[in-house]
């Protein structure tokens, strides 16, 4: 029987994972090549034989995606698998049309084929777009789990930009581990904030081995997603972050819309810096797409650690690369932090208490910036380091509204989850709001929660 010849379109992340769990050990398929896109410098490499398995003694070439047409013509490709994220629906179908025009099949692999089942509880934090605010949410959840005595493994979406064989399974417990692994700036940006409070971070390429290692050492697993990709592990609780600065994108990008449709909890972040109309539009869109999800509106105030350095001077802002390059934003946290600092000496509290007029003025300023966009091509160190702190609140007005919206949901496991959400509302002082999601053995009809894999108690009852 002839093997089906496959090309996997990717960006040094999901493509390697999908190959490992679907194609590597299946003799019916022959992976002819990976293609590389989005991230500079990741093509012209070879997926090593040690990771490719016995069916590929010479490894698998990685070529630029722009060569796909020539590859389809020269190699008699039967099937092309699309395996990267944060791509507009229209762009995905343009790529599908090119593949079909050359006579090959175009395939999207779903969660049932690609997600690995864990023996420990899994909480995933994903998003509808790159730069929506996943990282602060994931760090806050890791902190909450640690506070109730849960040893949590932070498993990060892959960023294998170096030696693939060396990076197959990575474990980082202290900052020195990052130095020894020669991590890039982008990797350090994601890993260091988790390491500071003592959490262990896992990443790499072989997520089957990573999962087994994380399970041996920890009580629970926190999936810290990348871009707007789906998690690699079957989640017990799916938290998805939406961005009101890009209202409408939650339904226009792949696989972000799939995340939205699967979500148990949707956090609409950055509500303190977005127009109220944008926040309402995103919340309405979320409820229309996934009416069973719990919707939480959240603030992510940005402050500079040295605000005096940007007052009264011309400032060059080095923004987050992916958020601007393929995330579609014309500005990021750096621009917001600088402008809030120049306008108000205490952005942490006053950003929450600012009126509608101030938010409209800021939105106008950012709209002006958007028309003068200069894309950022890479990340650089900056002398002014930004720190974002996560605050949850329902609305930024004098009157506090309920923070949780949407119907309560049952869980098929014995699951008891406490999310303690801190709010700093109108300088009244810190308030704590507890959101309890109780579970039982009987699920609500129509629930899209994952299937039962047996009784588990996720958090101690003392929480």
Explained architecture:
- The chain is α/β, with parallel strands linked by helices and 463 residues long.
- The chain has three domains: 4-113, 3-Layer(aba) Sandwich (Rossmann fold), CATH 3.40.50; 116-300 and 392-407, P-loop containing nucleotide triphosphate hydrolases (Rossmann fold, 3-Layer(aba) Sandwich); 302-382, no CATH class.
- The chain contains 15 helices and 21 strands.
- It has helices spanning 14-23, 49-52, 68-75, 89-101, 111-114, 134-147, 175-180, 185-195, 207-217, 256-262, 276-289, 321-325, 333-343, 347-353, 356-370; strands at residues 4-10, 29-36, 45-47, 60-64, 79-82, 87-88, 105-107, 122-127, 152-156, 169-172, 200-204, 220-224, 237-242, 253-254, 265-268, 294-299, 302-304, 386-388, 391-392, 416-424, 430-438.
- The chain has a nine-stranded mixed sheet with strand order 10-11-9-12-8-13-15-16-19, with helices on both faces.
Summarize the model shown.
With 463 residues, this protein is α/β, with parallel strands linked by helices.
Q: What descriptors fit this protein?
A:
463 residues; alpha/beta; Rossmann fold; 6-stranded mixed beta sheet; disordered C terminus
